[in-house]
Amino acid sequence: MSTGGQNGLRPGKGNTEGVTEGKGKTDEVTMTSNTDASASCQYRCIECNQEAKELYRDYNHGVLKITICKSCQKPVDKYIEYDPVIILINAILCKAQAYRHILFNTKINMHGKLCVFCLLCEAYLRWWQLQDSSRSIDPDDFIRYAKEWDFYRMFAIASLEQTAYFIGIFAFLWVERPIRAKEKLNFTLLLKALLLSSYGKLLLIPAVIWEHDYTPLCLRLIKVFVLTSNFQAIRVTLNINRKLAFLAILSGLLVESTMVYFFQRMEWAVGSDCAIYKSQDF
């Protein structure tokens, strides 16, 4: 989730409006032309969410001038000059500007790898809970866990539950779409945003490694943080109000809970995070 400086930027063709002249002459501006006219407005202003043709102008001698948004008269993307750590902190604080910078103005293709790693973290937590609840001195049990078949089962179940969660969100937004018929939903970008905003699941591993009396509370807080990040990602990606984003999250949780109930009835798993929380004693 961390970006900064010029990393990940996709320089495109833009105009000179809103750009203040820096050291050197304007005819010394170096630009990378974009032959695709349809992609001329591929960026977004992080303040007002308006489309922008460029993020900055690159003058000679390494002088950069950030483009000014025509709509709000603020820098289109101030984060291109920020350190990646600062951007990550702003993303953790769920600032809409940081999410717009990451989703619209950078090239991040790690959402697939991040999703797999988060699922591995969640599968490990469930496998750890299953092992802890079935602790025995019988060496056969340790051999059975060493085979890791239970871990693979937890990974498959966690994947199905997350898929159900996303399906619930997409289904709600698809049904709600006629209300906003003028806007076209980009489900590919939304999926990428949801995967990237689920990075909070990485905290599951430290919560298990440094086990203490407050581990159940930590797991609940991690769950709330992930849902909050998903909520903000939906708002930023689709530019919708808080009510619709909240209802989309609830729809996803409803479908996910249905899947969890099905697995519990089939006795296939320990359960999702909610089930794990209920099995812990505060």
Automatic annotation (TrEMBL):
Transmembrane segment boundaries: 151-175, 187-208, 244-263
Main location: endoplasmic reticulum
Compartments, as annotated in UniProt: Endoplasmic reticulum membrane
Region (Disordered), start-end ranges: 1-31
Keyword Lipid metabolism: yes
Protein's UniProt keywords contain Amino-acid biosynthesis: no
Topology versus the membrane: Multi-pass membrane protein
The organism's place on the tree of life at top rank: Eukaryota
Alphabetical list of InterPro entries matching this protein: Arv1
GO biological process, one term: intracellular sterol transport
Cellular component, GO annotation: cortical endoplasmic reticulum; endoplasmic reticulum membrane; Golgi apparatus
Keywords: Endoplasmic reticulum, Lipid metabolism, Lipid transport, Membrane, Transmembrane, Transmembrane helix, Transport
Function (record text): Mediator of sterol homeostasis involved in sterol uptake, trafficking and distribution into membranes.
Family in the record: Belongs to the ARV1 family.
The name this protein goes by in its record: Protein ARV
Source species of the chain: Bos mutus grunniens (Wild yak)
